[in-house]
Amino acid sequence: MKSQESALRKILQPAVIIGALGYFVDVYDLILFAILRVPSLKSLGFSDDQLVNPGILLLNMQMAGMLLGGIFFGILGDRFGRIVLLFGSILLYSVANIANGFVHSIEAYAVWRFVAGFGLAGELGGGITLVTEVLPQTLRGYGTTIISTVGVFGAVIGGLVAQKVEWRTAYFIGGGLGLVLLVLRLSVAESGMFQQLRAGKKDVSRGNFFMLFTNAKRLLKYVRCIFIGLPLWSIVGILVAFSPEISGALKIQGEVKVAQAIAFCYLGITFGGFASGYFSQLLRSRRKILFAFLILTAAAMAAYFFAAGQSNETFYLIIMLMGVGVGYWTVFATIAAEQFGTNIRATVATTVPNFVRGATVPLTLAFNHLKPQIGIIASAAVVSFACILIAFWALRGLEETYGKELDYIEPV
Question: Is the pLDDT assigned to residue 202 strictly greater than 80?
Answer without folding.
Answer: no
